[in-house]
Amino acid sequence: MSRRHPGGNAHPFGLTEFDVFVGLSAGSVLASTLSAGIGPAEIMRILRGSSDLYEAFRPWHFMRPNLIEWPERLALFLSKEEELVSSWLSGATDTQSGGRFSLAATLNKMLQATGRLLPTGIFDSRALQSYFESNMARAGLPNNFAGAFARGGKELYLSATDVNRGELVVFGHDEPYRDVPISQAMAASCALPLWYRPMRIENPRKQEPGQPEWLDLADGGLVRTANVRVAVEKGCELVICYNPFTRIRYDRRGRYLYEHGLFPMMTQMLRTMIGARLDLAKELVFHDPAFKADVVFIEPAEDDYKFFSMGPLNFWTKDRAAVHGYEAVRAAIESAHELLVGVFRSHGIEIRLPPSTNVSPLRHSEMQIDVRESRGSKR
Questions:
Q1: Beta carbons of 11 and 146 less than 8 angstroms apart
Q2: What is the bridge-based pairing of β-strands 238-242 and 294-300?
Q3: How far is Cα 203 from Cα 209, in angstroms, rounded to an integer?
Q4: Strand ranges of the sheet holding 367-373, from the earlier edge strand across to the other edge
Q5: Model pLDDT, residue 360
Q6: pLDDT digits (tens, 9 = 90+) for 172-224
Q7: Torsion 335-339-341-343 (CA) sign
Q8: Measured CA distances, 206 to 166, 194, 201, 203, 288 (Å)
Q9: What 3-state class would DSSP assign to 312?
Q10: What percent of the chain has pLDDT over 70?
């Protein structure tokens, strides 16, 4: 891929040379890494543990048991029990009945309060934060959005979900929550519910009216499947959106996903929800007359059983998943080359077919590219 400037010669254009990087969930890690100038080859070395820039990504970075929350849960439970007993002994008014707290009602509320003992996730996402933070320091990368923008001139935006408000929170150098460290924003964006406990951070805006002292943040994918609109709002005219979690069409004759048990069924349901929501977002975006951008969606094909079987939370298939994803995207770009040439050329980028490699060929159906041209953007 190369870019041509008016009156100048073409020069190579790689994934790290885009102007704006937007990521949510696991995509927040990819966006942060690419925006820092770390290319795909080095990312593969990091995943395989052969990088000199980052230390190897180990299971305990991904799956540190959530043990530290137990004392907090116990303290919250005991505090509530004390409150209930004190209300009964003092003769306080029960807001539901309008009378004094009865012994039966108090015991019932004390029993209900036992739910506070349950942890909010199996693993602790702060292990991810520690990994990102230490390795960014090791690589000499700023851990704040303003510093990252000043260093490379690349705009980075990450998003997470504010659990208490059910709203999207966007982090970036020109966003209200700009003071949250990048490593913390990445971990918050990756905090998949139940798998991870929510990321609790001190609100840098707590002195402002209406702002809480703490932010409880979870996976950014709870609110949106992709942040295409964020990119467009930042002035992007060409958006490349990669979504690896689409549903498969399991129509093998005489076979059903039900036969494979809980995890394949849960994976398919999650992918179905994500895919359906992204389809809806596409329609909403491209029926908006104010939307002026070209968007290229890259997603696994509906018959990519190999990728589906790896599982998004299976740490031990990360290498195979990365290689398969690379091969599939490469094959899809080659198969859609003629379609992409015109779109990219209108933005000053020339796509050239890469030289052949020893990578095993894939069926073109194993990855699909959907190009949506906005109204009036075609040049």
A1: no
A2: parallel
A3: 12
A4: 238-242, 294-300, 367-373
A5: 43
A6: 999 999 999 999 999 999 999 999 999 999 999 999 999 999 999 999 888 88
A7: negative
A8: 18, 27, 11, 5, 35
A9: coil
A10: 90
